[in-house]
Structure formats: C-alpha cells, structure tokens
Fold:
Amino acid sequence: MVSATDISGSVAKQLADVEQANAEAVREAADLVLGVIRADALVYTAGAGHSLAAVAETFYRAGGLACVYPLYHPDLLPLHGAVSSTKTERRTGLAAEVLAERAPGPDDVLVVFSTSGSNPYPVELCIEARERGAAVIAITSRACVAAAPKRSSSNLVEQGTVVLDSLVIPGDASYPPDAPRTAPLSTVVNAFLWNLVLAQVYDRGTAEGLDVPLWRSSNVEGGDEANAALLEKYGAIVPRLR
Structure:
C-alpha cells in the first residue's frame, strides 16, 4: 500500500530534479519574457488535451502575467469530446486556423506546452510563430518526444528557441515506480516550470525598474481595483479577457 509520504516524496524529488536540470533554460525563458514586457508585447500560450491545464495556469490567473494571449480551439479540450480532442491535435492545418485570429510577431513570445511534443498542432504553431519572427519557449519532455510516434515534420524540441524539460517519462504516469500506471506528473511539473519563469521575471524585472503586469486575486481586498487598469489595457487586444 502506497502512503501519502511516498507520493509526496517522489513528486518533491521530481520537482527538485526539474529545477536543477532547467536552471539555465529557465533563465533564458525569463530573458524572453522580460523582452516581451520591455516591448509592451504579448506572451502567447498554447497546448492541447491536458496540456490546456497549463495554458489555463498562464491566463487571467491571480499572480500571473496579464500580457498573455491564450491560443485555443474548443475541439482541443477533452471536456468537449475526449476522442475528438486527440484527433484534433493530430490534424494538420489547425495551427494556421487558430493563428488567423491573431499571431505572434517579432516582439512576442510563444509558449507551447506539450509533453509528447510530436503532434501537428503544437509543432505547426511553433513553425508558424518562428516564421513570423517570434521566439518559442517549448515546455515538454525530451524523453517523451524521443519515444513518441513521428506525426509531424519536426517536434517541439527541434522548434523551441528555449526548451524546458519536465523530465516526465514516456506515458506520463509515475506510480508504481517499477511499472508506472497512474499518478501522472506533467500537469504539476508544467505549472512548476512556468512559476520558476515567473519568479525570475518578477525579481529581475522589478530590479531593473520594470512594471511587471501581474493579476491580483479578485477575492482579496483591492483586487478588482488593481486589475481594472490591466483589463482596460489588455482587454482590447486579448478577446478572451472580455
């Protein structure tokens, strides 16, 4: 029988290993995000399937960046159809459809979350963004990318300007350790990696006098008032804030 201590210990070790392995990449990712803030541009975030949980972490979230433009198509969300969501992220051409609304440019950064990093949708997002001059932060697992079936002309590791490695093993599950079948880690690790980037952006940005645009919780005193100016500024260019 597994204990809560066993699970929490293994997760804590995973996060410690991830932080150590990605120290330089986190610094480089923070550099890119700080460049967006200096240019008064946007951080575009994207994912498919359960990686959309990471996109939700980046958008309109207490303590999160306000200059975020989430890329989204309803057919990518398992809650709108589980089997169809898998088929949708494997469909060539969807990235172009999603980017038709608004696409990142040279001052922007695209952040793509995809553990397998091999399906057409996330890969084509990266390719199109880079063709427009945008840098790409790929948050993925190098081990999963290497093991995944080849479904695109490239993969997320190849397309990332900066690659943050979740160290998740193929299949995502983590328990039991000798034959993992459950307790997937990608959602926890993706959020952790993004928070490592945000912490550096805040520390380094404030140290140089940048006004890092961060949301406040609307459920604390003064939260709504603090967010009002951000909503006025970004609501005009990020439709999902309206």
Q: What stands out?
A: The chain has one domain: 17-241. The beta strands are 43-46, 68-70, 109-113, 135-140, 162-165. The longest helix spans residues 186-207. The mean pLDDT is 95.
